[in-house]
Amino acid sequence: MFLFHTTKSKRASVTLSEHQLREIFMQFDEDHDNVLSEEEVKKAFTYLGSRIPDFRTLRGFNHADVNGNGKIEFGDELDKLVKYAFKLGYTVM
Q: Hey, which of 22, 40, 73, 83 would disulfide with 28, CB 3.0 to 4.6 Å?
């Protein structure tokens, strides 16, 4: 007779802080121009585990692209994007 012992791993998730989200978005500035393109923001939302990164990118730009140039500039615009993402409650395990 075989006995199988299984244990369920309990994992706690921790919500990412605004600082952590800012660092993640900044990491996706692939050309290091202190500006995030739509593609860079989409990659960041994908990295964060968004199931709908295209939609999150669109909504993020609606919240943050104040001057309408199709870019998220570091500074106030990035702050607005981070606040939007923070409200979504991205977590790490």
A: 40
Please check whether residue 85 is in contact with residue 19, taking contact to mean a CB–CB distance below 8 angstroms: no
Q: Which two tokens stand for residue 50?
A: 């968004």
Burial track 3-33 (b if 16+ CB lie within 10 A, e otherwise): eeeeeeeeeeeeebeeeebbebbbebbeeee
Residue 36: enclosing H or E segment and its boundaries?
strand 35-36
Model pTM score: 0.86
Look at residue 11 in the predicted model and tell me its pLDDT.
66
DSSP-assigned states of every residue in 12-34:
--EEPPHHHHHHHHHHT-TT-SS
What pLDDT sits at residue 10? 60
